[in-house]
Specification:
- Helices cover 9% and strands 24% of the residues.
- It has 326 residues and is mainly β.
- It is built from 3 helices and 22 strands.
């Protein structure tokens, strides 16, 4: 695991500029006030502040359960999720969803993460936002592929890498593999982008708003957050394929490179795109797939991209087009 120390956070928008601050002490100014970053609340969502959090150094693999007969060094599907625990270790195939079978959903991964012990689960929405914040501030660059490394994202790649391919970089800040067929490491975290999509819990999109896990550390987590367990945006229509289209219209959703962000509570410390007129070298530099509008679907969130994602991938590559059953 990788330990991330707790911090305060704040953000502001002034004309064409948006500011983001992280610090070990609270700060106040005419432009911004700080809060304990919402990633640092205990995972039981009892509102208890934590002084640190732990994130898997490797993409999750299985510790128990039954895997499929077509298991390979790069693909590992669980055929039984009963009693299956997630683990973070080197030299194994990452556990993935079995697309089209309803096996390996966000809810199943969360349950398998919970079995590790008290306060454990899969990566949350606020942890994803924290990881982006840390990267953007450290590199002063929104283009993570240019700032660090492409990650395993070449369009001709045909499968994921087993964990541990970036072990030689673990003792450094992470300079990544030199090509887009290699693993990338950021401060001890292997493949924060590329290789396989990551399920992110604590975020849902609906036709009229975004529902986000509470910033005060309370409220139960689930693949679809229930009433009383989320904060909802007001006056924000999610990007979609019918009434709020930006970038490329996919019919029920739209997609493209982020060029502006939603700057409205509860998302002021997060990075959800509100416009998609950028490119892989301008503005946000990472790709976004929007909510699917008008099909009675509550969207979940995926992050990071997959082994053939090319220039769309990065620490801020997000996909809100999938249903919880995906």
């Amino acid at each position: 695991m990788v330990e991330i120390p707790g911090c305060y956070a704040g953000s502001f928008r002034e004309g064409d500029y948006q500011g983001l601050l992280l610090g070990t002490r609270p700060f106040e100014s005419d432009y911004v006030s700080s809060v304990w970053h919402p990633a640092f609340y205990r995972r039981d969502r009892a509102g208890v502040k934590s002084q640190k959090l732990y994130l898997g150094a490797y993409e999750a693999s299985d510790n128990g359960g039954t895997v499929s007969a077509d298991d390979t060094t790069a693909t590992r599907y669980a055929t039984s999720w009963t009693g299956l625990k997630l683990t973070s270790k080197s030299g194994v195939a990452p556990l993935t969803g079995n697309y089209g079978t309803g096996s390996g959903t966000l809810a199943q991964f969360e349950a398998a993460g919970n079995l590790v012990g008290s306060y454990w689960g899969i990566q949350s929405f606020w942890t994803q936002a924290l990881l982006q914040s840390l990267f953007y501030i450290e590199y002063a660059n929104l283009n993570s592929q240019s700032a660090l490394a492409p990650g395993r994202t070449n369009g001709s790649n045909t499968q994921a890498l087993a964990t541990g391919q970036g072990n030689a970089l673990m003792g450094t800040n992470g300079t990544g593999g030199g090509t887009d067929t290699q693993a990338v490491v950021y401060r001890g975290i292997e493949n924060p982008w590329g290789n396989i999509w990551k399920f992110i819990i604590g975020f849902n999109s609906i036709d009229a708003a975004y529902n986000v896990m509470k910033r005060d550390g309370t409220g139960s987590l689930a693949d679809i957050l229930t009433s009383g367990n989320y904060e909802q945006t007001s006056g924000v229509t999610p990007l979609n394929g019918t009434t709020n289209v930006s970038g490329t219209d996919g019919g029920e959703y739209c997609h493209g490179y982020a060029s502006d962000l939603v700057f409205s509570d509860p998302l002021k410390l997060a990075f959800i795109p509100s416009a998609l007129s950028g490119s892989e070298t301008t503005y946000g530099s990472d790709y976004f797939y929007s909510h699917r509008s008008g099909i009675s679907q509550t969207g979940i969130l995926l992050a990071g991209g997959v082994w053939y994602a090319a220039g769309g991938a990065g620490v801020g590559y997000l996909n809100a087009s999938s249903a919880a059953s995906y």
